[in-house]
Model the fold of this input.
Amino acid sequence: MARQVIVKLDIGDGFVIRSFETADADAIAMYADNRKVSLGLRDLFPYPYTIKDARDWLAHAMNQDPECNFAIASPDEVIGGIGVGLFRGERRLSGEVGYWLGEPFWGRGIATRAVVAFSKYVFETYDLVRAYAEVFSSNPASMRVLEKAGYRLVGHFHNAIVKDEKILDLYVYERLRADVAEPWA
Done:
């Protein structure tokens, strides 16, 4: 069984990034079962999103070693998630950051604060020199989150993905460990 490290990062206004807990299933299912949320994420993020999906996700996330996926939470409940994909082989020094937030919490700066705090945590915790994120052209709000968090656009792939039966462009943003000398957003 993987070891469970308890993580808690304060991102302001009572919101935190923390380790997932079994009791998070209902809130995850409630906020994740939203077409607008799923449209900004890979197809691995199911829609509709059921309580079974939430329980399966928690079983996976809570047994990772090292722990790579975390809850974004209010004082009362989980409102989203954030994580980093770690790789082996030639990409072992890069990590892919991903995140989502329940729609009632959009436009309040929570995602930006989460990405800033989590990116700092990623460089302090994992042996990475690069964190990157991929964003669909249909999600300009996520592009703004990354830009405000100090990520820079490094790639634009035309007609690179299909989401909701639409062909979309894919944008790649990155932040390097060397950028840490620059102030965090």
